[in-house]
Design a protein that fits this description.
The structure holds two protein chains of two kinds. Chain A has eight helices and 15 strands. Chain A has helices at residues 3-20, 40-45, 72-83, 103-109, 181-199, 201-228, 242-267, 339-344; strands spanning 24-27, 33-37, 52-56, 64-65, 87-91, 116-139, 143-153, 172-173, 269-294, 297-306, 311-312, 315-316, 323-324, 328-329, 336-337. The longest helix of chain A is centred in the middle third of the chain and has 28 residues, at 201-228. Chain A is flat, with a radius of gyration of 30 Å. The two termini of chain A are 48 Å apart. Chain B is α/β, with parallel strands linked by helices. Chain B has 25 helices and 17 strands. In chain B, strand 2 (30-31) and strand 3 form a beta hairpin. In chain B, helix 13 runs antiparallel to helix 17. Chain B is globular. Classes of the chains: A alpha+beta, B alpha/beta.
Chain lengths: 345, 620
């Protein structure tokens, strides 16, 4: 990436933002400056004095400086929040659905240790999928920020690795959208969190190393104090009594614990996930009903054959939400759980 | 429908797919691998309605991406680097400077931790983001070429060096070039200082910034006079003698950060001992806002020791005669016609051609140093270097013939002995001249020693194969100076300098190919030289006087930076040769240079000790 591509990206974003909010933009031939016309509320939100204003990649008097520096991106964020919807709903009406017997595929894709599974039947269904985009930040002594996205099946709640839905050629506006978005936010957030943790691994390792170093420093310092507890007083040249030594040692250890707790407190982290946008899309899918028997318990599940991926989708762990193809069960009932939860159970 | 059943005999879990099968996991009660608790908060969706508009979603995503770019979470500077081995502490420093220091910082890492890399990464990041355009880098004269090469080869940044002519005194040169690299000693003098001060700079970088510790010096006054938005000061030893020097440096960065000098002294300097700070913690806190210091103990970067030995080869017979002939030829020629002061390199303006017979015979400094260096490398390299003079000068033609008579030099014999003694070691043999490399290839072929070659003549695939061969099959790799830069050659543990660059920074670069992070074994350095040669004198200075080969990586740069005068080390060596009438004279001059090096080293060591006491091993 070069300086010119970053600048070009900012300029393109500016153009699209203003056009999306009812404005017009024209850039000069060399691309360094432009002129814009924006509706009064947008112009006001961008802190420009008039509806018609100059755009510049360098700070310019009376104009709008569009660059990574300065306040432009903050103001643009406010305009986006006020005027541009974060949720888009679509429908892909027609896709090929597999017609062959699915039992073989289920065998190949899933494993069900110690359970008996039968495919009861399969049928076409329109299923809503959602792709959630999050801004994620981890804050402590230092800060880590990133963008993560997760897609999930609105019915099974399983995470699916969908392609970019916005790139699909036959995307059409949704006829109607059912269901509450907030119902899926929790699951999407949970899945996104685990991706953030993976992406932040080097950052976490750095903070771990710093915390260990600070704790070691404290330990070294207070160990030195502990050693001095029995030392002879230089001024009075008297040795402390065993009681005095004991009391001093106790006080030092107490102080060490307090300081360690303070340091740990300082390093404690907060991960914040903020939804940026949600793409909802109704897709044709093949829904297969499975009958699962384990010991004396029995339960029916639906697994989906995805028409975009042309493959079976995983199930979601009923405890943590993780996707899984190897389905374990709790001892008492046929509640599918992932290997991690099964190990903990 | 068929009944599907997992094999009964399989215990639960045995048929599990790989662990990465799972996506997601519990979002509460998270902790880092080291146990730091992580509280997770998921904000609600701040919605303003729904639309079937892909552009709206893309707009939000573009905004987020740009916000992340602005926040410096995604560094642009790491892409497209060539041979730069950036370390985690350097990346962390870059992020810290971008996020918290707003482009004004004193980079005070301990020697060898890569302040230059940090500064160059920061410079590249600012340039790539379009946040700066005009950059001035001021460095000690001995480090100019090192900086220029690194900027160009590793970071793809071409900096202009001011010409040593009157043109540098006019603002035109400084205005015309957006990226300028100059020695501080050159920039501060005459009309140049004024010209520099009149022009605005987006970023000024000052290497070895402790040379600006004193407010009354031209160095400090020049930096203070520059109109600049951002500034990086680089030094491993910000305090050389007393704390007021630190005050002076930080005042260049952030005037008023430490208030007035009187306030600073009153608050932080112990009366009677200007090196001993009062209110140490408060001072550290203030320093932490403008200064970053990574230490070896903090970044856990301790390398195994390195040992060096100089091996002098005694030339005899034809070889001895050749060296005498070359010395006589060069001495006579320079005495007769002098040496062209101006170089024809691109950093100098071409003067008019010298006239007459003397002018035609006159060597440029570059030609002379090339001939002397070839003499120090191998007779065949010398023969090739001097061949261009053979047509017009019988003495040169005789030298070429004499060089051709020598099949195996004294250094060759010592090299073969060394290789024979170094079984179970992996050796890098460095040579500066292509002709010498070819000679070494045939020497090793004849001796039946297996080797690979890594030089500028090989293709990328051949270079990969050479490294692989050294790792797996052969004991020796013949390298040119560019050999293996940025490659992981830590499996080798021995460096043999078959010939020697005159610039100590280049010698250190050679050793740095193996004595770097990841090296687990002690490193051995063998320097081959011909007795009585210029290289032997340089080695005696560097090895015996300042023990260069035992210094920590980077220390030689700090010592050279303390050398007085505005010239690079190789230029100094050439000057000594030119000013000396004979070997005795030359020896005397080298002794004086040795004394200067020793005082530069003492100055550095004193400052280093003081800074370690002041900032401790764990400054952050």
């Amino acid at each position: 990436m070069t300086a010119s591509t970053v600048q070009d990206d900012v300029k393109q974003f500016t153009t699209e933002l203003l056009e999306a909010t009812g404005g017009i933009v024209e850039w000069s031939a060399d691309g360094a400056e432009g002129t814009a016309l924006a509706p009064p509320p947008v112009a006001a939100a961008l802190h420009v004095p008039a509806e018609s204003f100059v755009l510049s990649t360098q700070p310019a008097r009376g104009g709008l400086n569009v660059s990574l520096g300065g306040e432009f991106l903050d103001l643009a964020g406010q305009v986006l929040q006020a005027a541009v919807p974060r949720v888009a709903a679509f429908r892909i009406a027609d896709r090929y659905l597999k017609k062959a017997d699915m039992a073989e595929m289920v065998v190949r894709t899933f494993s069900w240790p110690n359970a008996r599974v039968r495919v009861l039947g399969a049928g076409a269904a329109m299923v809503e999928y959602q792709t959630w985009h999050f801004h994620a930040s981890l804050r402590s002594e230092d800060c880590f920020e990133t963008h993560v996205s997760v897609s999930l099946n609105g019915r099974s709640l399983a995470a699916i690795e969908l392609p970019d839905l916005l790139e699909e050629y036959d995307l059409a506006p949704a006829v109607e959208t059912a269901g509450d978005l907030s119902a899926l936010l929790e699951q999407a957030g949970r899945l996104a969190t685990s991706r953030v943790m993976a992406a932040a691994a080097p950052f976490l390792a750095r903070l771990d190393a710093r915390l260990a170093r600070d704790l070691n420093r404290l330990k070294d310092y207070y160990s030195a104090l502990l050693k001095e507890a029995g030392a002879v007083n230089r001024r009075t040249k008297t040795a402390p009594t065993p009681e005095m030594i004991g009391a001093k040692r106790e006080a030092v250890q107490l102080e060490l614990r307090r300081k360690q707790a303070e340091v740990r407190e300082r390093y404690a982290m907060t991960a914040t996930l903020t939804p940026i946008a949600v793409v909802r899309c109704q897709l044709p899918a093949l829904a297969m009903q499975l009958d699962v028997t384990r010991k004396r318990s029995r339960r029916e599940f639906v697994v989906y054959w995805n028409s975009l991926l042309k493959t079976l989708e995983p199930l979601a762990c009923e405890r943590c939400g993780a996707s899984m193809f190897c389905v374990h069960f709790t001892e008492d009932e046929v509640a599918p759980i992932c290997r991690g939860c099964w190990n903990q159970a | 429908m068929d009944a599907l059943r997992a094999p009964k005999s399989a215990p639960v879990g045995l048929t599990d797919p790989p662990a990465d099968d799972s996506i997601g996991g519990p979002a509460s009660n998270l902790a880092s691998p080291g146990g730091i608790p992580i509280r997770v908060a998921i904000s609600p969706l701040a919605s303003c309605g729904s639309a079937a508009n892909p552009a709206a979603i893309r707009l939000h995503l573009a905004h987020t991406r740009l916000m992340l770019l602005r926040g410096f979470d995604e560094l642009l500077c790491l892409e497209g680097l060539r041979g730069v081995e950036h370390l985690p502490h350097q990346i962390e420093t870059v992020r810290k400077v971008l996020r918290h220091f707003r482009g004004r910082v004193l980079l005070a890492d301990e020697v060898g931790l890569g302040k230059t890399i940090e500064a160059c990464l920061l410079l590249r990041e600012y340039l790539l983001r379009g946040l700066i355009r005009r950059v001035l880098i001021l460095v000690p004269a001995p480090l100019v070429s090192q900086w220029r090469e690194e900027l160009s080869e590793k970071f793809g940044l071409e900096f202009a060096i001011p010409p040593r002519t009157k043109a540098a005194g006019s603002p035109e040169f400084w205005v015309r070039n957006d990226l300028v690299l100059s020695s501080l000693s050159f920039a501060k003098l005459g009309a140049r200082a004024q010209a520099l001060a009149e022009i605005p700079w987006d970023l000024v970088i000052v290497d070895e910034a402790h040379h600006c510790k004193n407010r009354t010096t031209k160095n400090w006054q020049l930096i203070n006079s520059l109109k600049r938005r951002h500034m990086f000061l680089l030094t491993a030893t910000p305090v050389q003698n007393d704390l007021v020097e630190l005050y002076n440096l930080l005042t260049l960065l952030e005037p008023g950060h430490l208030r007035t000098e009187a306030d600073f002294k009153k608050q932080y300097v112990r009366r009677g001992n200007p090196r001993d700070p009062r209110h140490r913690e408060k001072l550290r806190q203030l320093l932490g806002e403008v200064m970053i210091r990574n230490t070896r103990s903090l970044v856990q970067m301790d390398l195994p020791p390195r040992y060096a030995e100089t091996i002098q080869a005694e030339p005899a017979g034809e070889e001895q005669k050749l060296h005498e002939m070359v010395q006589q030829f060069l001495r006579e020629r320079t005495a007769e016609a002098g040496v062209e002061a101006k170089e024809t390199s691109d950093c100098e303006e071409n003067g008019s051609e010298p006239a007459g017979e003397a002018g035609a015979k006159r060597l440029t400094r570059m030609q002379l140093s090339a001939l002397l260096a070839a003499q120090g490398s191998h007779p065949q390299a010398l023969g090739q270097a001097i061949a261009s003079y053979a047509a017009s000068e019988p003495a040169a033609a005789e030298i070429v013939r004499q060089a051709e008579r020598i099949e195996q030099s004294a250094k060759d014999r010592r090299l073969l002995e060394l290789i024979a003694q170094s079984r179970d070691h992996k050796l890098l043999v460095f040579a500066n001249f292509r002709r010498t490399i070819r000679h070494l290839q045939s020497l090793l072929d004849r001796a039946g020693v297996a080797y690979s070659t890594f030089s500028g003549e090989e293709t990328a695939e051949e270079k990969d194969a050479a490294v692989e061969a050294l790792r797996d099959r052969v004991p020796v790799m013949i390298c040119s100076d560019s050999g293996g830069e940025g490659r992981n050659l830590q499996f080798a543990d021995t460096v043999i300098n078959y010939d020697l660059p005159w610039n100590p920074m280049r010698i250190e670069q050679r050793i740095g190919r193996v004595h770097r992070i990841g090296q687990k074994q002690p490193v051995f350095v063998f320097n081959l030289c011909t007795a009585g040669s210029l290289e032997a004198r340089i080695l005696s200075l560097l090895h015996e006087k300042i023990r260069m080969f035992e210094l920590v990586v980077g220390e030689i740069g700090s010592i050279l930076g303390n050398l007085e005068g505005g010239e690079e080390f190789d230029a100094l060596v050439l000057n000594l040769w030119l000013k000396s009438a004979d070997d005795k004279d030359l020896e005397k001059s080298f002794d004086q240079l040795g004394d200067s090096l020793l005082s530069a080293q003492a100055e550095y060591l004193q400052a280093k000790e003081l800074d370690e006491a002041l900032f401790g091993e764990d400054y952050e």
